[in-house]
Amino acid sequence: MELPLFPLRTVLFPGMPLPLQVFEERYKAMTRELLASGGAFGVLLIREGREVGGGAIPFSVGTTARSEEWKELPNGRFVLTARGEQRFRLTRLLDPRPYPYGEIELFDDSSWEPSGELEATLGRVRAEFPEYFKLALSLTGQWARAMRLPRPPHRLVDFLAPWLQADETVRYGLLEPQPALPRVAALEELLAGLLAQTRREAHAHRLQKYHGFGCCN
Predict the structure, then answer these.
(1) Are residues 100 and 81 in the same domain?
(2) Using an 8 Å Cβ cutoff, are 154 and 109 in contact?
(3) Do residue 48 and residue 135 come from a single domain?
């Protein structure tokens, strides 16, 4: 399958919204064609190079996306919101048209191999994420509502990954694995580290607030 590609400094997960401002001529041409056809494009995290100017080298796994809302500005630029749909692997870069184009293979995330290890790892993720999310928001004075977490493992990873406060290259480690167990295990490992760090930050924040009230004079 061949697909237009949009290398970015962002890791896109299925179901995740993606706001874009399109100003390069090659991507304006791509946007016009896709809006006319209703077609999808592929988003890949840049491994080397820049978003602007061409020549960027992407990672090999990305997510297809489709525009949901868009507006063309008087200067010919586009402001649009796309949404991630399905993971894929880039098998070959093709000649630009004039935007990047590639040959891809779609991942099938609708099925997985059930196992006791997978269920145990899913259980830890479901137990750890609410605490992490609540603590992370509390550090910025926000509060968290209860979330209904998806049950299928791939959907769970795709749903939770954008909420984790991590670098894009770290987040990419949650997009790349194909089988469900390695993906969920990578999520659990990252989440456990973030939870431990956030607990320490929340504890330090409480101590600072306590001292700020003059309770320990």
Answers:
(1) yes
(2) yes
(3) no
